[in-house]
Amino acid sequence: MAGHFIYFNTRRRILIISSLSVATELLEKRSSKYSGRPDAPSMSLYAGYIMCCSMLTCPRYGWGFTTGLLDYTDRWKQHRRFHQQGFRPEAVFNWRPFQLQKAHTLLVNLLASPGHMVDHVTTFTASTIMAATYGYDTLPHKDPMLDIVNRAIAIFIESTSIANVACFTIFPFLKYLPTWLPGLSFYRNAPVSRDLARKMLDTPFEFTKKSMADGSAEPSLVYEFLSRSREAGGNGLLDEEIVKEVAASGLTAGIETTSSVLMAFFLAMAMYPKVQERAQAEIDEVVGRRRLPNFDDRASLPYVEAVLRAPHATTEDDMYDGWFIPDQTLVIVNVWAIGHDESRYEDPNTFNPSRFLTPEGELNDDDLHYIYGFGRRICPGRYLAEASLWIAIASVLAVFQIRKAKNEHGEDIEIVPQFTRGQVTHPAPFKCAIVPRSVEAEQLARTQI
Ligand code: HEM
């Protein structure tokens, strides 16, 4: 162990980095060496984002195509080029009107059934990504396309939980046993998962192709790539398969992560009413109560912005600070530790947006970029995610009060924050009350769509 990193040299070489400067030095400045993915079952951890990646397990469940699981190969580079084009800041800018509209749908859904906050949040994040990717406008409830995507993600997450993958990693012979044996039921999910993954790759893609053929296609990532490929005389099937893979990778990487942050926002607001009041006071002062916030208000709402802020396998040997880091070391960035580093953050366990403000009330330069990863593997969907999160948070704060739920005696039900385990962590179910701030706020929300 050396200061901010721990190195295990067991059967699998593992390096855990808990310092921003070490992560930046290794994963950004020496990014060419640290952009691979491990060649054996392994886990890479991020706080709030735990991705369990297994080169053996994921293809079995039909998920070997996703960008995040591809090794540092030409195919991965092709994926990245597509992501870069589709989700670069200028391209994402064009999605703002749509994100605003979907944030308003979120408000109306919350008014109708606040108890289904988790479903509404997932519909919101999925609908923005589906629109940007396929030009597909999801229904507010029970959308058939979204149903395929959600089922594909759910069965994959359930089947490849860390416990299950660890089981296969430690006892690889299990995969030769009959799947009817007790305890191996999750393994029976593999063909179902493969089937759903295939549907997830094909169905929305075919939707875009069909709408291009009948002239009704909305602009989208898939639309743009297919048009360009046709203009350039692309070689059909191969190109189409890559576009399908890239598009579905964005869906699978973006929905759970973005939804998880929004759920954590509701949790924090219920637990920290003073923070909520201060953010709402800022919105009332800057935006007023006669309209809802829009993206033009973002720069004038530093406190709301502050509320929003709250594995790499090496492909070559490397030396760092006198330490030798061999090829094929699994590198894990412990984002939780970086976010709880007391030398950076005073009282790090408290939800305190003010830590991102200067004494003058301006935003400081800590933009938490590290939550999106480092170097060549950095999250390509971060601009889309940030914009979706901001507009959802600002809109919800303008319209709702989020409070602890009450029991039958009218007392607050205390919230003990807990997070699920799995490939993407999110707050464990908790009760909260989501009620309009006023009759006017409710009417304002209803008149937007
Ligand atoms: C709050 C939301 C999000 C968070 C916290 C998040 C975080 C991350 C992190 C930590 C990584 C791994 C980076 C690394 O290996 O160093 C990643 C990868 C990725 N993310 Fe995101 N992400 C979010 C939303 C999105 C969205 C909306 C999309 C697409 C629309 C997306 C697409 C991807 C893809 C394709 C990868 C794989 C990149 C690669 O391996 O080259 N993410 N994300």
Automatic annotation (TrEMBL):
SUPFAM superfamilies: Cytochrome P450. The lineage of its organism: Eukaryota, Fungi, Dikarya, Basidiomycota, Agaricomycotina. Keywords: Heme, Iron, Metal-binding, Monooxygenase, Oxidoreductase. Its cofactor is heme. CDD domains: CYP64-like (cd11065). This is Unplaced genomic scaffold PAXINscaffold_18, whole genome shotgun sequence. One of its GO terms (molecular function) is heme binding. It holds the Pfam family p450. Heme binds at residue 379. Gene3D superfamilies: Cytochrome P450 (1.10.630.10). Pathway: Secondary metabolite biosynthesis. It comes from Paxillus involutus ATCC 200175. Belongs to the cytochrome P450 family.
